[in-house]
Amino acid sequence: MRRVDAPVEPLVRFVVLDFRLVAAIDSSALFSFIKLRNFAEDRNVHLIFCGMSAATEKAFRAEGLFAANDPVISLQANLDLALERAEEAVLRRRQVQPIDGAPAFESWLSRELAGEETARRFLAYVEDIELDQGGYLFHQNEAAESLFFVLSGRVSVILERAEAEAIRLRSMIGYTVVGEMGLYRDATRAASVVADEKTRVYRLSRDSLRRMEAAEPVVASAFHAFIVRTLADRLNFANYEIAALQR
Q: For burial by CB atoms within 10 Å, which of 138, 197, 203, 227 has the most?
């Protein structure tokens, strides 16, 4: 509760509660969750419960929790689905305002590459690709020869395992870059990336990047600076996640 009310940290909008190891629940504990629901409603926080046994879910429902269309709490089958639910809501909340009527992606790219002219010249080096649902941007363990800008739709990063179910690591929607680590490290893909819905991307190949560096050093410099900022932001987010788990 202190974390939700903390004024200096990023606002908490979702709290995931995993009940995988909960065998039973009594009336006093249920009353605490009713109070927690009211606390969350007052602070515009959504509670996502997951991994409940049938008996525990029945006890919650008997107290009026998990009512249909409840804006404060929801129930998912497992932790992965609960995290996906929160992640999707956060992603969909992102909005990019166009500049002077330009398409939203081009407006975003202009901001990231320090100007409309730089962004326009950069786009001469990319390939426009559309993927249907289930289509792969790339497969795990293949050579990394490109990176991708997601213009629209949604993609998921999937860790495939030989003798176990694949794990969805994260999902991403438009105005982000995918596959940059493999390209910059000249390494094989650590995971697969698949389209969750009809998705449009721009592909920048290694050859196109080299041509840009030779012919348009200013554009290439702006692009590399953008990649550095992106990786720094992702590292900062990962550090924050680790710190949160250690509390």
A: 138
- β-strands 154-161, 127-131 pairing: unpaired
The CA distance from 155 to 169, in Å, is 11
**What is the fold, at CATH topology level, of the domain defined by 97-245?**
Jelly Rolls (2.60.120)
Domain residue ranges of the chain, discontinuous segments joined by + = 2-92, 97-245
Query: End-to-end CA distance of the chain, in Å?
Result: 13
| pLDDT tens figures, 195-239 | 988 999 999 999 999 999 999 999 999 999 999 999 998 888 777
Beta strand ranges found along the chain (DSSP E): 14-18, 46-50, 73-76, 127-131, 136-138, 146-152, 154-161, 164-173, 176-178, 192-195, 199-205
CATH architecture of 2-92: 2-Layer Sandwich (3.30)
* The Cα angle at residue 86 between residues 93 and 77, in degrees rounded to 5: 150
Q: Which of 177, 202, 179, 203 is nearest to 189 (CA)?
A: 179
**In the structure encoding, which two tokens stand for residue 44, read together?**
């515009």
- In this prediction the pTM is 0.67
The per-residue pLDDT for range 18-66, each reduced to its tens digit, is 998 888 888 888 889 989 998 988 888 899 999 999 999 999 988 888 8
